[in-house]
Amino acid sequence: MRTFANPVIPGCHPDPSVCRVGDDYYLACSSFEYFPAVPIFHSRDLVSWNQLGNVLDRPSQLTLSPGTPSSGGIYAPTLRHHDGRFWLITSNIPRGGTLLVSAEDPAGPWSEPVPLPDVTGIDPDLAWDDDGNCWCTTAGVDQRRIDPVSGAVLSRPKRIWSGSPGAQLPEAPHLYRIGDTWYLLIAEGGTARGHGISVARGPAPDGPFEACPANPILSHRSTDHPIQNTGHGDLVQAGDGSWWLVFLGVRPRGGTPGWHVLGRETFLAPVTWSDGWPVVGPVDSVMRAPDLTPAPVAAAPARDDFDAVALHPRWISIRSRRPEDVSLVERPGWLTLRARGGSLDDPSATFVGRRQEQHDVRVRALVDAGRGRGGLAVRLDEQHHYAVEVGGGEVCVRARIGPLAQRLASQPVSGPVVLCVETWASGPGMDHPRQEPDVVRLGFETPDGGFVALAELDGRYLSTEVAGGFTGRLIGCYAAEGVIQIDWYDYRFLSLDRLALADDLVDA
């Protein structure tokens, strides 16, 4: 029996939307204040996913101003394939409104956005009926017919269902025609511990809808399950006829209330049908894989030597990435960063990072700060980040937690230096009710390869439960003053259990 490890796309990859074209599956996620935006993935077995690129990867498609708040920006896309073309609709919050792009190839290029100023509400969905009508359904749950080419709204908004009585925040609608019946899948209960998925069905895309008597069909609320906040999902039928659900969840750790630090991640679960209703199977960290031909994807290289002509799409920046601030050609073989903001507290900070995808990691980077000041940071938002910084002949650790900012221990250094961040998750048992989810160690390497830890900090302060919002940690490099240059960046997963699972996936 082949197995796979959940989540199938780890790290801050929430609000998944999936579609199938032949034997290929494509999936897109929210990206919030980061640019390039909307990561898009490809798979042939629903388990192994490879990032093709980012849908909104040009400034002409997306401009996120410094005034865009953390956890603002691009919310909850819906990805669909219709009439030989891929379509993606999303929201730019708080001021960008609803926008729609399309492409012949999901790897891009994607079109310039079509604005839909008359479509209000987040989490827009797209569905087509047999007459060619395009239905756009948004959180609430409201629905309109639209012209996806021009963005024109062709009907008045109609409230079609509000979810389970008393449940808050009906959102993330996805509308499907399955046989002769239309199904409306939504999330409700909020995206924290009360999150869940419910479903209704009706004879037409605009209803009337009857609720499933077993709602919510997925929720881990009020349980001690290690995967929590399960919700915001999308259905897909595999090529063998089986049904599957991609959805978001988190992996909290530590004491009470449990802190999740990686963000909301993409999970996979099987779906069966009973009396015409979808039934979501058990969700576990290790699951039986779909009966599809295995199509493993090579793991991302641990080390990036910045020798390519462009950054890999996994690298993202805060709100924008100006060519004059981020360069691979100014010093070939090095990543050059030019400071805009004076620190990571600044919404315009020059930062290039990648999502933290595992709890136990070691990240190292060789940094030349001879013309400036900057370093290696673990970032959640402007008010919650830890950094090990080099400049002016010394290395120091900085911590920002809400309104408090502190400069911690420092040591003198000379020349380029290898900066290092390690995160170590707490064990499965609790030593005390307030046990931290993990410990973050920050320091540098000596010329002989020894690690000097300048600080060990409690990881709970870089968690959603403390900071609020919708994102997870990024680990990357930043410039705070002048120019810094990075020769290489190395991201290593330290635990062996998930690596063993990955080996089982390939070999079984």
Automatic annotation (TrEMBL):
<protein>
    <submittedName>
        <fullName>Glycoside hydrolase family 43 protein</fullName>
    </submittedName>
</protein>
<keyword id="KW-0326">Glycosidase</keyword>
<dbReference type="InterPro" id="IPR023296">
    <property type="entry name" value="Glyco_hydro_beta-prop_sf"/>
</dbReference>
<keyword id="KW-0378">Hydrolase</keyword>
<dbReference type="InterPro" id="IPR051795">
    <property type="entry name" value="Glycosyl_Hydrlase_43"/>
</dbReference>
<dbReference type="InterPro" id="IPR006710">
    <property type="entry name" value="Glyco_hydro_43"/>
</dbReference>
<comment type="similarity">
    <text>Belongs to the glycosyl hydrolase 43 family.</text>
</comment>
<dbReference type="Pfam" id="PF04616">
    <property type="entry name" value="Glyco_hydro_43"/>
</dbReference>
<dbReference type="InterPro" id="IPR041542">
    <property type="entry name" value="GH43_C2"/>
</dbReference>
<dbReference type="Pfam" id="PF17851">
    <property type="entry name" value="GH43_C2"/>
</dbReference>
<feature type="domain" description="Beta-xylosidase C-terminal Concanavalin A-like">
    <location>
        <begin position="303"/>
        <end position="491"/>
    </location>
</feature>
<dbReference type="GO" id="GO:0016787">
    <property type="term" value="F:hydrolase activity"/>
</dbReference>
<dbReference type="InterPro" id="IPR013320">
    <property type="entry name" value="ConA-like_dom_sf"/>
</dbReference>
